[in-house]
Amino acid sequence: MLHDKRKADSLHLATRHRLIALAVASACATLVTQAHAQQANQETTNSPAASTAADPAGVTGTAPSTVVVTGIRASLQSTLNLKRNSDGFVDGIAADDIGKFPDTNLAEALQRISGVSIDRNRGEGALVTVRGVGPDLNLVLLNGRQMPTANLGDQSGRAFDFSNLAAEAVSQIQVYKSVRADVTPGGIGAALNVMTGRPLDLGKQASFGAKVVYDESNNNLPDQNKARRSATPEVSGLYSNTWNDGMFGLSASASYQERNMGINTAAVINGWMGPFRIGDTADGAIPQPNNPNFVNIKNPPSGNDLYLSPQNMSYKMNGYQRQRTNGQLTFQFRPVKELTATLDYTFAENKLQHRYSELSAWFGHNMDIQGAQFSGGPLSSPLYYEERYTSPQDISMNGGDAARKSTLNSLGFNTQWRASPDLTLSFDAHHSIAEAKSDSPYGFNNDLATASFSRGTTRADFTSEMPVLSIQGADFVGRPHQVAGSWFQDGRNKMTLDQAQLGGKLKLFERSGLNFGAAFTRNKNESIFQQVQRDTWGGTVPVTSNAYNQNMWHADNLRNYFSKLGGADNPNLFTQIHPFDFEAVRNAAIAITGDRAGYTPSLANPAYDRTTIEKTKSIYFQFNTDWDTTLPMHTGIGFRYEQTRVASTGLTKVPTGIRWISENELPVDFGSQQFETLEGKYNNFLPSVDWDMDLRSDLKLRASYGVSIGRARYDQIAGGSTYGTTASVTGVTVSRGNPALEPVKSKNLDLSAEWYYNKQSMLSLGLFHKKLTDYTGSTVITEASPSATTPVGGKYWNAAVASGCSVSNRICIRNYILRNFGGQPGVTYTGDNSSGVAQGTITGITGDPGLPYQVSTLVNSQGDTLKGAEVNWQHMFANGFGFQANYTYVKSDLTFDNLGVGNQFALVGLSDSANVVGIYENANWSVRAAYNWRDRFLSSTNDNSKPNPSYVEPYGQLDISIGYNVNRNLSLSLEAINVNDATQRVHGRSESQVLQVSTGGRRYMVGARYKF
Prior knowledge:
By secondary structure, the protein is mainly beta. The chain is globular and about 100 Å long.
């Protein structure tokens, strides 16, 4: 079958990626063998090992003064020195030159490090996964300071979006993979420290750069969605100066970038319904064997086979325009060489506009009109699914026009004081605010659905790379376009972070030292959200009405925008699309319906409004010793103790009572909205042990053990409660966060062997093992309402039971109460119905039991292990050529069972990854070609509130950059991103259960940089 062929091709492609990487590595090995002897005569192959461990590149807010960034070789040597001389396991990337980071995107630069892989958003790196641990459980620091995050797309997450930061001002990124007492905790995968230059380190220098960015994906959009130009500007500059013999220093950096891009997606939005087995009759199930329509189900699932059915087919053409502004101003004062004070301000702003057009078709899952053919097997997937309608359904042409803006403002102060030759003290404090909010009168996200109610038999074919939608009977003339349903979202996410850190280093004896310190952090996260929705999905005018001017819609061909994907050439593909002018159609809908508020975002009645405050106090000590043994060793033994208090307040409506209006109907009455605060606290003792030994001057063994933590998401610790609107005799369901939820804990063991066989070359093997505990699980507890009573088990109820009614015979109980207590407090009797059953309402009264709350909340319960290995090889030849290659293998039993049903717990982001980078550099030219590959990984365990997984399929991308130094001041550059024009595919429980296929495009940058 076509599906089997596509699956085989997919497996072949993944295997080919591995073979390419192995072939490149083998070729490099041959070159090393040939060149190593010659190179050994040209330079010292054994980097001298320090007799004492160098101070690790700390997190105190200043970049190491030893880093000399004068090209690729110096950058590679700098990062090797960082790795070699640090306590524990530290990797990094350094700038090639002032204002010249290896990649234009920080996340894409980080993926070159072994163990680091990225999630892409809108075609560029955004989120970072380290050693299989997802973005929420990695911590990002800026100059050693914890940074706030704000994201309207995920207001509850802790992940840092690297696309908000420009690379030009960054001097180095340090990735702490093992635990260190003096590094702020919060990252189980890693803590990533982004460092910027300081004027007293940079000295007197300046640079200015300009680029033209051309994104070909902008051309692959309908006119309504594309930007006016595909070529956009990018400018950056950095200035540094010192005076009074180095007493004062001032530096300023700024960058501005525009980018216009397009991302087109073919998807099954709202996910796949199920899983089901034959015999299930819930919404989404196929006809049962006793249904006459069962004959239209080919190769049906049988026995315990699981199957799913698609909900909503979608083809969406997304146009994005982004403007990113970054700036940093730093002032330093060094009155004496022992004292340095630094004051800095950092600003980042990211504006994003989004316009889209979408063709979609919704399946209703009426068992009498379904048809399908299934693949068979214990996990049976439809090869096609169709519905044959007897009355025309909607062909939806949706559109959106929204914008959002995120900002970061950070003001910090740092001082370093060498109080004596043996004692150095430091103090660092910052006040930082990150905020994300709507930047459009239409909100930060919206959907205006228009429809022609002329859809006949509809089929979805899943045997190709993208799903293929077929529609019969379309008639856009007889049943013209009109506005149907819509929704408009508004929201705001703001995080304020205040942090103060004290640190000290005390030299003890001849070869020992003590690092110590204390810190206080206050983190306030505020989020508010509301969706204004009109549920007029059946239309706002009669289906044949011409009330809407049809000139607002423009005919186009869907195939124009999905030609890259397999299945786009299928002759059965429905290709008629009609993008429209969003503003004009919205205004027409307002005029016809008279409901402006229904088409306008608002925060007047938010669905949620919550504020969470975390206060953390900590102290740490670490004792380091260099051992003068036959084989030199270094040890570091330390701990960090933290105490965290959480207070979370949420807006909620609290029940005031219930009304028992029929046998099984007990609607809940609510009071006005009010804020409810929940509190919690927890303590953590985080030990760490580092050891390394020099077997030779160029060969090092290393081991580390430590306990790290990753804090829970904000929705998991949120205050406020969400109450069900209907109760039962056992009470009402309640959903609630748990501010006392403890962080995920990981006991980490790391081992490595590292061979530094020349100044810019290294071969290493690392092993890691993480024992993870305290992942969140759900539980249900029962508690009595302090504000609402229930008649169940109350005075009248007990009287009815005493009269002879069974507690399970609710009709008997109601009849007795209504007929015997009618007119008394809490009882309204309105007579009997035609069946002789008493009618009326019964409510709780004073003295009755409190309404039971069946509270679903979160507890620390889950755990498992994660283990893996990293192989890393970096080599520079004497002739200017070089390469970097690494492979990371990760494994955990915390995987999703595709044959399981119900909610599951599994690690997201877990995948192998590989990188191969080829390098050439001489006095004039520098060339870098980087291929990054990431294996399939689980991205979600919940698909649109259904317990189904989402898997991102293997993805590989080739990037190339070329630089030419015209002279010592002027350099030119050419960069090409996604040269292989890779696409990304996401599937569900099986590969044929496609969730989304996305196309982007290549991106080119031509630039010049001048150093003063």
